[in-house]
Amino acid sequence: MGIEEDLTGRPFWRQLTRDERRWPFALAIAAMIALQLTLPERYSLGAWWVLPAVEVVVIAALMAANPGRESARTPMLRRLSLGLIAVASLGTAWSVFRLVADIAGGADTGSAAVLLGSGASIWLINVLTFAVWYWELDRGGALERAAGRDPYPDFLFPQMTTAGVAPADWRPQFADYLYLAFTNATAFSPTDTLPLSRWAKLTMMLESAISLVTAALVIAKAVNALG
């Protein structure tokens, strides 16, 4: 097993390729907004509508500036995209904090069904939050990956190490980062994709910790409520 290279000796991920589409990213944000709206208001940062409204405005601006593929990236668009993910992450962090505080403090979290529903929504929001972070930051983002500018990947996918298991022009897409976030949140460790950079390792560690705490406390509280 080794890093697959082209005829020039460069890793194949450094070759110029087609730009990625933005709609999977927008769909993930839309799913996060929908899940946020299903949560009880005490798990929302401020009024229940504030955070979703901000996210809708920002994602609409991003889609208007780049409606198709990631073909035009300016510093302003980059900051806007990162700002959108940061705002969503802030809302996720508050929801997790409030849920943990309610359970640990013995607050009324409703019936077992309500608690499990809220916990599942927060868990899924956490997965989507980290998926968009991985997609946006790996090798500088979608546009930088398409240009092949960064020689060192932050995540090493199996298709990047074994020849013949995927087309020669294979590149990670948003679905691959979503799978990475989901498996990391369920297995609490890397599965088939390895983090290489320090930020990738620390970010995956943070996601696993949030997922573990959320799942353990929600299940324990729900079992206790059922008992």
Write the layout of secondary structure elements.
Blueprint: H1 23-38, H2 50-65, H3 75-104, H4 112-137, H5 142-147, E1 155-156, H6 174-187, E2 194-195, H7 198-226
Antiparallel strand pairs: 1-2
Helix pairs in contact: 1-2, 1-4, 2-3, 3-4, 3-7, 4-6, 4-7, 6-7
Fill in the keyword field for this structure.
60% helix, 227 residues, 7 helices, 2 strands, 2% strand
What can you tell me about this protein's structure?
This protein has one domain (13-226). The model has no long low-confidence stretch (mean pLDDT 84). The protein is built from seven helices and two strands. Helix content is 60%, strand content 2%. The protein is globular, with a radius of gyration of 19 Å. It is mainly α and 227 residues long. It has a two-stranded antiparallel sheet. The protein has helices at 23-38, 50-65, 75-104, 112-137, 142-147, 174-187, 198-226, and strands at 155-156, 194-195. Helix 3 (75-104) runs parallel beside helix 7 and helix 4 packs across helix 6 (174-187).
